[in-house]
Amino acid sequence: MNAHPVSAEDIETFATDGVVCLRGVIGLDWIERLLEGVDHTLANPSPRGRLWNRDEQGRESRYDSQVWRTRPEYADFVHESPLGEIAGRLMRATRSNFFFDAMFVRGPGTQFRTPFHQDEPVWSVEGFQTVSSWMPLVPVAKESALEVVRGSHLWEQDFRQPNFGAMTGDSRDDVVFGEETVPIPDIENNRDQYDILSWDMEPGDVMCFNGRTIHGGSGNLADDRELKVFNTKWLGDDVRVVFRECGMDPDHSDVMSEVGLKPGDRPGTHLYPEVWSLHA
Ligand SMILES: O=C(O)CCC(=O)C(=O)O
């Protein structure tokens, strides 16, 4: 048994592939509490709640974020679950700060898939040591799970990311890259040219990926399957605040400024708490 919740092999896989799927690292008591939280949030969306998609049959894909500041089960999970340490060790960081949460909920049979994209280029921070931990709260089949392009976190080209503001119709999410930027490759229509990974996952499993790893998908659900995902995002030593002219998703520039964080600062304060430290 490992002394730590991740093995040396997991850490190496995360470094080379930009993703690792960890099995059974989150206790089912956490999953039960988070499911209660998600049901509550669905009925009472936060100001960051969005409808991502509603298809002709009325099947919906919903998103919410920063819910950890609305209910204790989420806040407890951020502070007390093993994920802060898991992320810190995967990043080979000396400390791990919580960044934000994102929940993704799709009704039974929903086909809608998230377009392939990278996260870090649209965040209000920049840096290589980041972890996005995609954690299904219900069983999900490989063909309906999030997909990632193996090794894409190491690609040096900066890409024009899809504008999720256009998808939600909400200008607060707008990120509009200049026409001079290089569009992200059309992975969906050229799948055989990419090394795409996804896994059958059970509650308790977590897919951890670098914020620069290209990812997309989910959806494509069987008629009797819904999908509820709670994702937490984590930051390591080299991450700094940045306010991007193209826009940010989610845009934290106002709340960061309110607590005195400015470009170049390492994220901290009660908004981005340090949850794990190698030397603690
Ligand atoms: O689950 C999804 O549909 C999208 C997930 C995603 O983009 C993320 O976790 O950053």
How would you sum up this structure, described in words?
This protein is of the alpha+beta class and 280 residues long. The protein has a single domain, classed as Jelly Rolls. It is 19% helix and 26% strand. It is built from six helices and 16 strands. It has helices at 8-17, 28-43, 72-80, 83-90, 164-168, 253-258, and strands at residues 19-22, 50-54, 60-65, 95-106, 114-117, 125-126, 130-136, 146-149, 159-160, 182-183, 196-197, 206-209, 215-217, 227-235, 240-241, 274-277. The strands form four sheets. Strands 1, 2, 3, 4, 7, 12, 14 and 16 form an eight-stranded antiparallel beta sheet that branches. Strands 5-13-8-11 form a four-stranded antiparallel beta sheet, with no helix packed on it. Strands 6-15 form a two-stranded antiparallel ribbon. Strand 2 and strand 3 form a beta hairpin. The longest helix is centred in the N-terminal third of the chain and has 16 residues, at 28-43. It is globular and about 50 Å long. The two termini are 22 Å apart. It binds 2-oxoglutaric acid. 2-oxoglutaric acid (AKG) binds next to strand 4, strand 7 and strand 14.
